[in-house]
Write a structure and sequence with these properties.
The complex is a heterodimer of chains A (234) and B (231).
Chain A: H1 2-16, H2 20-53, H3 59-68, H4 74-85, H5 100-136, H6 141-151, H7 153-168, H8 172-178, H9 188-198, H10 201-225, H11 228-231
Helix pairs in contact in A: 1-10, 2-5, 2-6, 2-7, 3-5, 4-5, 4-8, 5-6, 5-7, 5-8, 7-10, 9-10
Chain B: E1 4-13, E2 16-26, E3 32-35, H1 42-50, E4 57-62, E5 70-73, H2 84-94, H3 99-112, H4 128-140, E6 146-150, H5 158-173, E7 177-181, H6 185-191, E8 194-199, E9 202-208, H7 209-214, H8 219-226
Parallel strand pairs in B: 3-7, 3-8, 5-6, 6-7
Antiparallel strand pairs in B: 1-2, 1-4, 8-9
Classes of the chains: A mainly alpha (234), B alpha/beta (231).
Chain lengths: 234, 231
């Protein structure tokens, strides 16, 4: 209990004093996770809609694989990308290892199946509702996908936020490919792991409270901006 | 565009026959009412004519095929999760009509169906009658040559039914060919120029409305018009 109180006080102190390092790693956490969510959503949401409207031979197999990939172990993803991005690896020439871009890439890989799977579920329900109308209006496949994405945007928001929640809280993979380098790749989760390792539980808890606050702030802001609850029944 | 010729059309689902085999020629005159008991194949016949039902056997061919000139109104109106005005503009938006033209058409139809006050409200909040009027206006906004309607007034009150019937009669008078399924005999008598009577997935009788209603030929149609239960 004492640790928690000290953690809350540490968090308060860091925020009130506008601690430069806290701001830096918080902004980097946001930058990495939001970039990953935006890129993953741009690919995964249309893919989820495509799977809802398009029938093809191995569709069920693709959906099963996509759902299974939601449980992808982040540490393994981190390890694989460490090998791929290291100097001796096939993508070593790009010099991405131990940069924020490496962290963004692994987060994209981890959250894309989550966003695609939730999007697919939402789009499938909407497609069942719209199917006859869109067929009778002689729409093209692309027009159907666009319509589903536009009209299902509030459900897709949930998919994006689920991806963001997973990304902002991720530690294993980004620790491996980012290296937790001060002023370069340190983010809130890797800083928490570091402070816990050093035995500074109060600071680790303080950073944890900041992380929770940040995640809640982003979720509430997006819901408020998109007026999810105000316009209700769509 | 006309005639529409259905030759030996059969629709089967999981080896069970839903429709046919049937032959039918639909010409320019109308409105046509498709009548018959529940499960007789009225909806499937309309879907086949509109081209949204997969035919197991036979052919359904228009003299000049142009699917985009058809519109279909479903028994349970499907409204997009958008505003009333956006629902109306959607079919024109799909075919990339210029924005001023879309706005003019939306304004015209929204007033015509009496939904001007709720133009910017979510269409999902409309009542059943309002939804159906919206669905019909959305179907008509592209000025289709043929309008298919599947029991559009089945769950509506008298006033909404009257408004929709008036709209359909005006539409027919303006030159749109109407083909409509209904189990409401009063409505069929009010609107029909000719009638298709369906029974067990087949066309049991066709003819001009006065002939069908006053001098039915088949025992099934006689029984149906009397109000008997057909099995």
């Amino acid at each position: 209990m004492n640790d928690i109180t000290q953690g809350l006080l540490a968090a308060l102190r860091l925020i009130v004093t506008f601690d430069a390092e806290l701001w830096e790693i918080s902004l980097r956490s946001l930058q990495v996770s939001l970039t990953a969510v935006i890129i993953a959503s741009a690919v995964a949401m249309p893919f989820g809609a495509f799977l809802a409207v398009q029938r093809f031979k191995y569709r069920r197999l693709v959906i099963s694989i996509m759902n299974a990939l939601m449980g992808l172990p982040p540490v393994v993803v981190g390890l694989v990308f460490y090998i791929l991005l290291s100097r001796s690896g096939p993508f070593g020439v790009f010099g991405l290892l131990f940069t924020p871009w490496a962290m963004i890439i692994v987060q994209i890989v981890i959250i894309s199946p989550i966003i695609a799977s939730i999007s697919h579920q939402a789009m499938r329900e909407l497609w069942a509702e719209y199917h006859d109308l869109l067929i009778s209006l002689n729409t093209s496949k692309w027009q159907r996908i666009k319509t589903l994405i536009w009209d299902g945007k509030r459900n897709l928001l949930t998919a994006g936020l689920a991806g963001f929640g997973r990304a902002i809280g991720e530690v294993g993979a980004i620790m491996i490919v980012g290296g937790n380098i001060e002023h370069a790749t340190r983010v809130l989760t890797t800083a928490i792991a570091l402070e816990t390792g050093k035995g500074d539980f109060a600071l680790a808890l303080g950073l944890g409270f900041v992380l929770i606050g940040l995640a809640l702030f982003v979720n509430i802001s997006i819901h408020w901006l998109s007026r999810t609850e105000r316009e209700g029944r769509w | 565009m006309f005639p529409l010729t259905l030759s030996n059309v059969c629709v089967r689902r999981r080896e069970k026959s839903i429709l046919g085999p049937l032959d039918l020629v639909v010409d320019q005159e109308g409105p046509t009412m498709v009548i018959g008991p529940n499960g007789s194949g009225k909806t499937t016949l309309l879907r086949v004519m509109h081209g949204i039902e997969r035919i197991s056997e036979g052919t359904a061919e228009w003299a000049q095929p142009d699917h985009a000139n058809h519109a279909y109104v479903f028994q349970s109106p499907v409204v997009l999760r958008r505003t009333v005005a956006e629902n109306l503009s959607y079919p024109l938006f799909l075919i990339k009509r210029p924005k001023p033209e879309i706005n003019t058409a939306v304004e015209y139809w929204i007033e015509r169906i009496g939904l001007g006050k709720v133009a910017n409200r979510s269409a999902t909040r409309l009542s059943g009658g309002e939804r159906q009027k919206l669905a019909i206006a959305r179907a008509l906004i592209r000025d289709p040559e043929v309008l298919f309607l599947d029991e559009p007034c089945s769950n509506l009150d008298g006033q909404s039914t009257r408004e929709i019937e008036t709209l359909l009669l005006e539409t027919a008078a303006a030159g749109t060919r109407i083909i409509m399924a209904t189990h409401d005999m009063g409505q069929a008598r009010r609107l029909a120029a000719d009638v298709i009577f369906m029974k067990s997935g087949r066309i049991a009788e066709t003819g001009l409305a006065p002939d069908v209603f006053h001098a039915p030929e088949t025992s099934e149609l006689k029984a149906f018009l009397k109000g008997d239960i057909l099995e």
